[in-house]
Every structure is written in structure tokens, then in C-alpha cells.
Amino acid sequence: MGGSKQLRLVVIEIAESLVAGDRSALARLISLVETGQESGSIAAAELFSKTGRAYVVGITGAPGAGKSTLTDRLITSYRAQGDDVGVLAIDPSSPFTGGAILGDRVRMPSHATDDEVFIRSMATRGHLGGLALAAPQAVRILDAAGFARIIIETVGVGQVEVDVARATDTTVVVVNPGWGDQVQANKAGLLEIADVFVVNKADRPGADDAVRNLSVMLELSTNREWTPPIIETVATEGAGIEELRSAISDHQNFMLTAGRGEAKRARRLAEELRAIVAAQLASGAELICRGAEFDSCVAEIVSRKIDPYAAARQLVSNLA
Q: Does residue 183 lie in a domain region?
């Protein structure tokens, strides 16, 4: 009991230091929430009332689309207008260590010495609801630290990207020339999560086709209050970055009207609550699926004295 109380006091002290302006606490607190341990939940709870001011932008798309370069240039644009920027780069987990495969500032070296920019890679780690639980908490830590803009960048496509979209205010989907067939194959998912489309590497052949495919896809969609703009960029040269920042700003202004932004954030909190409940139930299920009673149920199933569903109901009743 004493150890738990001491842990709580230490974590709260670090959180208070962060709010007071000590950004050296950032990495420590994000590490706590990333591991999914109790200390991370304590930190997130302590900081919760001091958050809700930052605007969160998600950047997602296929590997090799140029998302890191695009993010790097977008950071530069935000810094030019005086905004502090926090970046969470969601990487696939290492199969050996469970840590993020890609580095933090190696991917965006031009901001490595800027104290008003914080870049951190986070591993998905593969545990149930890992991103759905860790990402919102990490965002709150950056929010509480005073970052006006928070960018969440993902490495690939799939469920992680859907989770990222749920954790952001504006989601930017990045595609490249020649990706037309994949756009058609994935159009339902893209339409669901995209607030802004970017055709990066637009100086290459096929860029016009990519824009055309996206335009047709959007024309066929219905029941949309907001039609995602399509921005052409050449991130390596900085071309189109100001147009992208303007498109994100337009979406932000749109979300501020008629309470759309608040409604989306409410849905986001509802999703997070579901993820927390699911994780806690999974943790409880793991506990009851071990020990003498579980072994006894298995033995009764093997001997056909009870069926698996009845055994499960008997075990689950212990969660109440």
C-alpha cells in the first residue's frame, strides 16, 4: 500500500512540474502511459482538467507516401506562425523489444534543436486497445505542456489509422501518384477518416490521375457536411505546404461552427471510455482464466459434465 501511495505522489509531482513549464518531464510521462501501467493512468488523470486546448492533426497514408517529410515541413510552417508543436509518430512494434522500430528525431532532423518542438515515436505494442488507450493520454500530456498544435503521424495503413482518426480533430490522408487502384480498393475507409487529402510527390507522372480519382470518389459520396479538399504537394521542396496548413485551418474553422468540434471530441471520449472498459474487462478475464477454478471448469468440460458456454458464464459471474 505504501509503495502504491509513494508511486502516486511521485507521478503527481512529475505532472505538476510539467504544467509548471518543465518540459523535461514530457518524455518520462509519455513513457509511463505508453507502457500501459498504473502510473500512466495516474498521470493522465492528474492532467485531465488542464487539457482540451490543443488542436490535434492526424497524418496517415501508405508507407513511403512521404508523411514524415510532410510532417517536418508542416512543423516548420506552424513554427513560423509562433505555434509550439508536439509530434507523436506511431510506429509498428518491434517483435523483439516491443519498442518503436523507428527513431524519434532522426526522421525530422531539422527540428532536433528546437525546444518548442517535441517529437516522440510510440510503439503500438500489439496489446488490446494499445493505441486507443495510449495515444489520447500522450496527447493530453502534450496538451498540458502547452503545445498549441499536436500532430499524430502513422507509419502504415490499417486499424491503427482508424484509431488515429478517432484521436484527432483533423485527419490528413496522404497518397502518391500511381495509387489510384488502391484508392478505389480502399475508398470506403479513406472516405470515412479523411478530412483533407494530400497528393504528395505531385511532380511525378500520374499526379493528375490521382487527383481525378479522388475527386470522382468524393463526388460519389453522399451525406457529407464537409468535402475534403485535395491538396497537391511536393514535400521535399516545400511546395503546397502553406495550402495544406490553410486547408487544415479551414477544417478547424468548420468544426468550430455549430458545435461540430465539441461533438466530435465527445465521440472521441466515448470511444476512449469504451476502450478503457474493454481493457479492464480483458484484464479481469485474464485473471479469472487461471487458477484452480478455471482448471476445474476445463476438467468438467473435458468430462462433458458442463458445456463451454455454461463454464464461461460461471467464470464471468466472478467479475461482478
A: yes
